[in-house]
Amino acid sequence: MAKESILVVEDEDDIRELLRYNLAKEGLQVIGAATGEEALQAVQGRLPDLILLDLMLPGIDGLEVCRIIKGAPETRHLPIVMLTAKGEEADIVAGLELGADDYITKPFSPRVLLARLRAALRRRSLPLPPENAPLKTGELVIHPGRHEVLLQGEPVHLTVTEFRLLHLLVRKPGWVFTRSQIVNEIHGNDYPVSDRSIDVQIVSLRKKLGEFGSHLETIRGIGYRYK
Ligand code: CA
Question: How do residues 31-63 score in pLDDT, each as one tens digit?
Fold first, then answer.
């Protein structure tokens, strides 16, 4: 099987080399780019399987690289994992809304980094279940067609918005959704849903789901994910 290839975009040589070393050790092929320009050039050739993208780059910055890659039909399917510094929540949110798949905050542990990259690579090859397909995860079953949720075989009574929110998160496990992504996804013409009301919906969902509710994870300053 061909090695999976990762395009590592990082202007700091030490970090880029450390990443190269750690990823190569795990059998991944690494292509290095020190600037946004180099990264864009690299995807003109053979496409990598994933892009690990530092956001703070001189010249074309990471968010702009993300915008260009996610905006072009030939490259928009490429998973992007952002490398960010602490306190860059606004940029993380912007990147996720541009279509980035995940992010890792520096300083990172190589083990955690690798797990996140593997998860992103795995998600890439897993087709998303169809909108109306029943989802089963642990003791939870969601029947979208019937608008029904069963927990340990018992029905859970959810509002329409709670149902849509739960379905959205569970359908893409491990995926971080920003509040405005959630609003856009579950918004119906007749349901006024705002960023802040998402938080309220989550609290209510967690309450109704009991212990299972702890799978709905709050990502501080960013959004929510089902884990
Ligand atoms: Ca940097």
Answer: 999 999 999 999 998 899 999 999 999 999 999
CATH for 135-226, options being 1.10.3720.10, 2.30.30.100, 1.10.10.10, 3.20.20.70: 1.10.10.10
Q: Give residue 56 CA to ligand 1 midpoint distance, Å.
A: 4
Q: Tell me, in angstroms, the distance from the centre of ligand 1 to residue 181's CA.
A: 27
Any residues with CB less than 8 A from the CB of 194 and at least 6 apart, and which? 183
173-220: pLDDT as tens digits: 989 999 989 998 887 655 667 888 899 999 999 999 999 999 999 999
Question: How far is ligand 1, taken at its centre, from the CA of residue 13, in Å?
Answer: 9
Residue type, 115: A
How many other β-carbons are positioned within 10 Å of the β-carbon of residue 90? 10
CATH architecture of 5-125: 3-Layer(aba) Sandwich (3.40)
